[in-house]
Amino acid sequence: MSSLAPPSRDYAALASDIKRWARELGFADAGIADTELGEDELHLQRWLDDGHHGEMEYMARHGTKRSRPAELEPGTLRVISVRMDYIPPGTRNAWDVINDPNAAYVARYALGRDYHKLMRNRLQKLAERIHDTIGDFGYRAYVDSAPVLEKALGRNAGLGWIGKHTVLINRRAGSYFFLGELYTDLPLPVDPPASAHCGSCRRCIDICPTQAIVAPYRLDARRCISYLTIELKGSIPEELRAPMGNRIFGCDDCQLICPWNKFAQDAAEPDFAPRHSLDGAKLVELFGWSEEEFLKRTEGMAIRRTGYEGWLRNLAVGLGNAPTSEEVITALQARASHSSEIVREHVAWALERHATSL
């Protein structure tokens, strides 16, 4: 990345234009940060040293590139950080689903189209808009596609503060939004970082079903339901299965309880609308999907990430936590001899749970 921009350019005006163009492209907000992440680098290293990343080896794989943007993309001077709201209007109330033990809870961000490609395309269009105005400049767009400390950069760009649950919170829009970044060599003026407003509140810590938030601002991913249902590829620790309830892909409890989400904004992107009634589908129904059906129905969705084996594993746990009924037991027995040892193990656990209820 090499800067070709003339030093006489009005970068303040350009920064203002960039934020306006970002909103025109469908982003809810945009801000600009520098590349200094020294404190965050120390925080990340402590987290890794404590083993809180579990099997997410990619979190440690890239050394300091994650916390030093210019090492990841040489020549980077600024990071344009953007956010996009993701809960569309009309989505079934999350608490209603969680409190229905026969329903399957899917994290609200994963109900519709996978955001990665959509946001990356929008960031590319933003870069093209900048190019059309000033000519050649260095940039690289990222949306969970590289080692990037996106929450720290978003905070430094003024998009929100990192809450005690480690999620970015915006005073005007809560926390239900995606983040993306445009690394650039343009010496744009930076925005003031967001100040923190959690105060003495600890609702997110107290409500976590598996007590994964081990201290304010410290998440042990090995206990987090999002990690267990998405990142973990083996067996879910038995002591964490009952607390998972009916959460089969991700978990939103720490966000649902956050007072700031009373300001959450509806998504403007129609592609985020729930597909296949996944905002409240029944566990038994989803457990009945064949692998072909799973692959077809989750095409272009984040849910595909768990894989079919993980999908059945997670649903088996949900069914083990569901009320005992003939329908539930029949569904589980149909998978008792599944070819996957992981699936068989979790189905056996679920059936044993129901055997004690008969």
Describe the protein.
The protein is an alpha+beta fold. The chain has 16 helices and 10 strands. The strands form 4 sheets. A 4-stranded antiparallel β-sheet has the order 1-2-7-4, with helices on both faces. A two-stranded parallel sheet has the order 3-10. This is Epoxyqueuosine reductase. It comes from Dyella koreensis. TRNA binds at residue 233. It holds the Pfam family Fer4_16.
Strand order of the largest sheet: 1-2-7-4
| Overall radius of gyration | 22 Å
Give the overall silhouette. elongated
In helices, the fraction of residues equals 25-40%
Supply the number of structural domains. Answer: 2
Question: How many β strands by DSSP?
Answer: 10
What is the CA-CA span between the terminal residues?
A: 66 Å
Strand content: 5-15%
Sequence stretches where pLDDT stays below 50 over 5 or more residues? none
- Counting helices, strands and paired strands, the structural category is alpha+beta
Instruction: Estimate the mean pLDDT confidence.
Output: 96
Number of helices: 16
Main sheet overview? 4 strands, antiparallel
Order of helices and strands: HEHHHEHEHEHEEEHEEHHEHHHHHH
